[in-house]
Amino acid sequence: MSHYSRYWTAYQTIVTKEFLRFIRIWLQTVLPPVITTCLYYLIFGTLIGERIGEMDGFSYIDFIVPGLILMAVITNSYANVVSSFFSSKFQRHIEELLISPVPNWVILAGYVSGGVARGVVVGVAVTAVSLFFTDLSIYSYGWTLVVFLLTSVLFALAGFINAVYANTFDDISIIPTFVLTPLTYLGGVFYSITMLPTFWQNASLANPVLYMVNAFRYGLLGVSDIPINMALGIILLFIFGLAGYSLNLLKRGVGIKS
After folding, report:
1. H helices then E strands: how many in the chain?
2. At what angle do helices 3-23 and 60-90 cross, to 10 degrees?
3. How many CA within 13 A on the CB side of residue 258?
4. Nearest alpha carbon to residue 66 among 218, 185, 203
C-alpha cells in the first residue's frame, strides 16, 4: 500500500468517526439549531419583520434568511471540532493518533472535514426549515455553495485552535460566548451596515463575519454591503492563515505534548 493510500485510509477513518459522533446524537447536535432558527423566523421574521418592512429591496424575513443559515453553519462547524478534539485530548486517545504514521495535515484535514460535515448537515436542515417561512430563491448556486463550504472550513479551523489551547471544558465555551457570538450578531445578520453611522460602518469592517454573511447573502439574494471579491479574498486569507497556524501548533505539540 502506497503512502497516499494509507493517508486516504486514515483520513476516511477520522472523518467517519467524526460524522458518526455527531449524527448519533442528532437530538443534541442537529435539532437545537433548527428549533432556534425557527424561533428567529417567527419572532424577527414574521412578528417584528412585518413592522420593519423592506431592507435592500427585500422583505425583512428574506433579508435575514442568509444570515440565519450561515450563523447555524458557523456555530456548528466550530462546536464540532472544538468539542471533538478537546475530548480526544482529555481522554488521551489523541496520543495514539499522534504517534501513528499519519501526517499532521491528514489529522487536521480529518477533524476539519468532520466540522464541515456537521455545518453542512445543520445548514441544509435550517435551509429546509426556512422554506416553511419564505420562498427561498437562489441568485447564484455556485457562489452560495462556495461561501457555504469556505465558511465551514474557516470556523472548523478556528474550533481546532480553540481546542488545542483549551485546558478545561470551560475553556472551550469562553471563545464561543465572548467572541464568536458577539461577532456573529454584529456581522450584519439582522441588518444592513448602511443603516449605521459612518463610524460604526467602518468599525464593522473589522468584523470577519460581516464578509461571510454578505458574501452568502449575495449568493442567495444578489445584494451585498461590501464588494464580494474582497469578501472572498478575506475569507481565503483567514483560511490559509488559520490552517498554517494549526499545522504549526500540531508540529510543536502545543497543548498536546507535555
Report:
1. 13, 2
2. 110
3. 9
4. 218
The predicted pLDDT at position 184 comes to 87
Q: In terms of Cα–Cα distance, which of 148, 147, 124 is closest to 136? A: 124
Cα distances (Å, whole numbers) of residue 164 to 25, 51, 256 = 24, 46, 7
Give the DSSP per-residue string, 192-237: -GGGS-HHHHHHHTT-HHHHHHHHHHHHHHS--SS-HHHHHHHHHH
Q: What grid cell was written down for 140?
A: 447564484
C-alpha 248/C-alpha 242 separation (Å) is: 10
Amino acid at 253: G
In this prediction the pTM is 0.92
| Cβ–Cβ under 8 Å, residues 115 and 77 | yes
Confidence grade of residue 215 (pLDDT, cut at 50, 70, 90): very high
| Distance from the Cα of residue 143 to its chain's centroid | 16
